[in-house]
Amino acid sequence: VEGQDGGRMEKLQQLMAHYEPNDPESIQKSFARHLEYSLACTRFSFTMQDAYRAAGLVLRDRLLESLNDTNTWYREQDVKRGYYLSAEYLIGRHMQNAIANLDLEQPFKEAFEDLGMKLEDLFGEEADPALGNGGLGRLAACFLDSMATLSLPCWGYGIRYSYGMFKQGIKDGRQIEEPDFWIGDGCPFEIPRPDVTYPVRFYGKVEEAHENGQKVSRWVGGEIVQAMAYDNPIPGFDTYNTNNLRLWRACPSEEFDLDAFSSAQFQDAITQRRKAEDLSAVLYPNDATYAGKELRLRQQYFFVSASLQDLLREFIKRPNFKWEELPQKVAVQMNDTHPTIAVAEMMRLLVDVQKLDWDRAWELTRQCLNYTNHTVMPEALEKWPVEMMERMLPRHLQIIYHINGIWIQKLLQRWGDGPIIAALSIVEEGDVKKIRMGHLAIIGSNKINGVAAIHTEIIKKETFPEFYKWCCDNGEHNKIVNMTNGVTPRRWVHCANPALSEIFTEYLGSQEWLTDMTKLKVMLDYKEDPKLHDKWMAMKKGCKAKLADWLKSTMDLEIDQDALIDIQIKRIHEYKRQLMNILFVIHRYLELKKKSPGERAAVQKRVVLIGGKAASAYVNAKIIIKLINNVAKVINNDPDTKQYLKCAFVPNYCVSAAQVMIPASDISEHISTAGTEASGTSNMKFVMNGGLIVGTMDGANIEIREECGPETMFIFGCQENEVAGISARAQEGHYPIDSRLQAVFDEIRNGKFAGQAEPEAQAEFESIVSRLCNARAAGTWDGDKYLVIYDFPSFIDAQARVDQTYKNKSQWCKLSIQAAASMAQFSTDRTMREYAKVIWGIEPARRPVDEEMQARK
Ligand code: Z2T
Q1: Which of 163, 188, 213, 602 sits 20 to 30 Å CA-CA off 278?
Q2: What chemistry does it catalyse, as a reaction equation (predicted)?
Q3: ipTM surpassing 0.85, yes or no?
C-alpha cells in the first residue's frame, strides 16, 4: 500500500515502536496466543508437537523484528554485501540455537518450566533439516552463524529441497534409504515470501538480433520455472543483527496456465506444472561424487539464476547506482563448483539483460565472484557434457565458449601452442565433450581458496598446477589462498555441551569466550588443577550418560559408561577408511580372545561407535556398513569379550545425533589417507569438546596438532609426500601384509562374520579383502588405493598409545583441557573474519539498539 497515507505510517510506526518484551510472563502470553490463535489449539488439549510449534512462533516473531530491522540498517548504511551461494546447508535444528543467539535462554527456561515443560523436550520435537550431505553443507551453516555473530552484512542463498538427506535405516545390517520430508506440517522458522519470485528459463534457443545498431542475443522459448523465496532468519550471538538464508523453491510459472487454457490441453499443462516443482524436490545424496544428472544441473542453474537476479535487484535499487560500483557493493562466494554456472549467468544478466558491453561485464563479474574448492578427489570434479548444456542453457554455452576463446587467446600469446593449452581449456575434448566447471570457476573468479593449509598446497601443486603457474607468471601469487575451515562454538560447544559451556564461563567469569575463543587460553593455567579435573571429568561423565540414554532409546544399545568411548562419524567413503577402523576392531577382538580371563580384565574397556551415510549408489561403502554391523553382532554377543569391547553402527547419523555423540567421546577417528581429506570439520568439534584425536597427517588435523600440541594427538600413518611411492609399490604387488592384519583377513575369509548363514555378505566381505591385496593387472588397478594395508601397523601402535595414555586419568584430563582450550583458530569466527578481509573486503555493520533493547530505531 503506497501513496498518501493520512498518517498511516506514523500510526503504524507508533504501534510497532516496541519490540516484543522478553520477560518470562510475556513469553508465556505470546506462547498461549500462538497456541490458541495461530495453531487453533485449546489450552486444555495440545500435544508436545503443538507446544514446540507455538514456541517456534514465539521465536519467529522475535527473529522477524530483528531480521527486518537489520535489513533496513544495511540499506541505510549502504554497506558492501556478501552472498554465499551453496547448493547445501546442513542447518540442523533451529530452536535451541535461536534461543541462545537471541539471548533468551533464561526467560525461556523459566517460562516453560513454570508451565511444566522442559525445553529439551520441545527441542526434540523439531525435525532436523538436512539440506546437505556432510561437511560442505555443515560448513555453510556454521559460516552463516559466524557471519551473523560478527555482524557481517552477508546472506546465504540456496535451494529449499522438499526432501533433504535421506533417513538411514538399517535392516539386516544393510543401509536402507527412507525419504526425509522434513517440512511436515510446516517449519515455524521459515518465512515464505510469495511476493519474492523470479523467472528462470530452461531449454529454448538463442536468437541473434539488432538493437540500435548493436548485435544482441536473445534467449527465447523453452520453459520458465518460478523461483519463490523462503527466508530463514539467522540470528547472531551477542549482537542485534539477524541475517538471512534465502532458499528457493521451484513453482510453476503463470505462463504455463495461459498456454494451457488457450490450447485446452489442461491435463498436459498440469503435468508440466508438477514437473516444475520436481526441480527443488530432492537433494542429491552424493558426497563428493559427481553423478552427471540433468536434474542436478537444472537445480544448480535454478538457484544461481534466482540468487543473482535477487542480489542485482538489491544493487540496482540503491539511489543513483553505477555499474562500476558493483565490486564495491557485492562479493559472491561459490561453495564448490555446484554454483559456478554463476560465471556465465552473471555475464548473461549484465550483457543480455542490462546491456553492458562484454569487456566491462567481464571485469565486474571477475571482481565479484570467488570460488572455494573442497576436494581433490578426481571423481568429484564436475564436468557437464556440452550436449546437455547446449540443450538446457544454450546462451550460457555460447558465453562459456566466448570466455574460453578469449582465455585461450591469452594463453597462446603468453606460452605459444602446447599441451598446456588443452590442459587449461574450459572445454575438455574427447568422445564426449565436456565443460569443466572447476576451470570456469577459476577463470571467472577473483580469489580461489582451499579449506586447510595442506589442501591449498595440493590444489596449487597437483589439482590445478597449470593455473598456479599461470597466476605466478602474472605476478598473481595470491590468487589462490588458504582459508582453513572452522565450526561455530555456539552450536558445537554451548548448545551441544551446556556443562562444558558452564565450566568455561565459570572459569573465565563471562561468556566472552563464545565470541572470542582465544579467551580460553586462561584455562591452560588450570590444566593441572584437581578441582577443574573433577569438574571436567564430571562433565564428560554427564555427556556419556546422555549418550548412553540416547543409544538405549534410539537403538536399544547398552554401553558401559566407564569404557573409553571411541567414535568415527562421517560419510562412509573408502578414503575415510572406516574399513581400517573395523579391521582394527576385529584385531582387538582377536587379541582379547587369545587372553585368559585374568589378562582380559587388564585391557582397557572400549566402545567403538561408527556412524555415517553411504551414497545410495556407492556399492563398496554399503558393504562396509554391512561388515561393521556383522562384526558388531559377533563381538557384542561373545560372552568372553563383550564386557571389554563393544562395537556398534549408529544408524542415521545427522546433525542432531552429532550434538549428542561428539561431547561424549574420549577419542575420535580422523584417519583418511594423507592428502585425501580436504579439511575435515568434525575433528574440530570433537577437540573443542575435550575429545582427543586419532588421526593421520591430513587436512586440518595437521593444524589442530600445531595449535594443541603433538602430545594431545595420536598421529599415525604415512605422510602425503610418501603416498605416490607407496601406492606404486602396492600396484607392483610388493606389499607386505602385517601378520596381525593377515589374521584379521583370515578370520573374515573363514566366515566368522557372515559364513554360510549369509553367503551373499560372505562373498562381499571376501571381495573387499581380496581387492585390498590386488596388484595392477591388465592395465587397471582396483587394489589398496587408500593404503589401508600400509598404514595398519602404525594404526595399531597409535591405538596402543591411546590405551596407555588413558590409564593415567589425570594425564588424560590435562591433555583434554589443553586441547579444548587451544582451539580458537578453528572457530568459524576466525574463518569468516579472514574471508571478509582477504576475499570479500566486507566490514561488520553492527546494528545499534537502545540500551534496554526496547524501542525500535
Ligand atoms: C563435502 O562434504 C566435502 C567436499 C566435497 O567436495 C563435497 C562435499 Cl558434499 C566436492 C567436504 C570435504 O570432504 C571435507 O574434508 C571438508 O572438511 C568439508 O567438505 C568442508 O570443507
Answers
A1: 188
A2: [(1->4)-alpha-D-glucosyl](n) + phosphate = [(1->4)-alpha-D-glucosyl](n-1) + alpha-D-glucose 1-phosphate
A3: yes
Residue 410 falls inside a structural domain: no
The answer to whether residue 652 sits within a structural domain is yes
Encoded amino acid at 348, one letter: R
Residue type present at position 542: G
Q: Which domain holds residue 584?
A: 559-823
**Cα-based distances in Å from 393 to 249, 257, 305, 348:** 20, 23, 12, 11
Which residue's CA lies nearest to atom 10 of ligand 1? 288
Question: Which residue in the block uniquely carries the three cell numbers 543480455?
Answer: 352
Quick check: is 201 catalytic? no
Q: 389 alpha carbon to ligand 1 midpoint, in Å?
A: 25
Q: Is 364 in the pocket of ligand 1 (CB under 6 A)?
A: no
> Given the C-alpha cell 500462538, which residue does it identify?
34
Number of separate domains in the chain: 2
- Active-site residue, 402 included: no
Distance 141 CA to ligand 1 centre (A): 13
Q: What is the DSSP string of 381-400?
A: --EEEHHHHHHH-HHHHHHH
DSSP annotation string for 49-85:
HHHHHHHHHHHHHHHHHHHHHHHHHHHHHT--EEEEE
546-588 pLDDT, tens digit each:
999 999 999 999 999 999 999 999 999 999 999 999 999 999 9
Per residue in 510-531, pLDDT (tens digit) is 999 999 999 999 999 999 999 9
What would the pLDDT profile of 605-657 be if each residue is shown by its tens digit? 999 999 999 999 999 999 999 999 999 999 999 999 999 999 999 999 999 99
> Could you tell me the CATH number of the domain that includes residue 763?
3.40.50.2000
Residue 171, number of CB atoms within 10 A of its CB: 8
Query: Are 27 and 109 in contact, with CB atoms under 8 Å apart?
Result: no
448 contacts 370 by C-beta, under 8 angstroms: yes
Query: Model pTM?
Result: 0.97
Grid cell 557384542 is found at 636
In a domain, 844, yes or no: no
Question: pLDDT exceeding 70 applies to what percent of the chain?
Answer: 97
Going by C-beta distance under 8 Å and a sequence separation of 6 or more, which residues neighbour residue 432? 385, 386, 387
Mutual orientation of helices 739-749 and 788-807 as an angle, nearest 10°?
110
91: number of CA atoms within 13 Å, CB side? 35
Strands of 128-173, DSSP E: 154-159, 167-171
CA of 336 to the centre of ligand 1 (A): 9
Q: How many CB atoms lie within 10 A of CB 266?
A: 11
Cα–Cα distance measured from residue 801 to residue 547, given in angstroms and rounded to the nearest whole number: 25
Q: Please name the residues in contact with 795: beta carbons below 8 A apart, sequence gap of 6 or more.
A: 580, 584, 671, 694, 716, 717
Q: Is 211 exposed, middle or buried (0-12, 13-18, 19+ CB in 10 A)?
A: exposed
Closest CA to 668 of 581, 551, 560, 552: 581
Q: Residues near 789 by Cβ (< 8 Å), separated by ≥ 6?
A: 730, 735, 737, 738, 741, 772, 773
Ligand 1 binding pocket includes 134 (Cβ within 6 Å)? yes
The answer to whether position 44 is within a domain reads: yes
| Total Cβ atoms within 10 A of residue 350 | 23
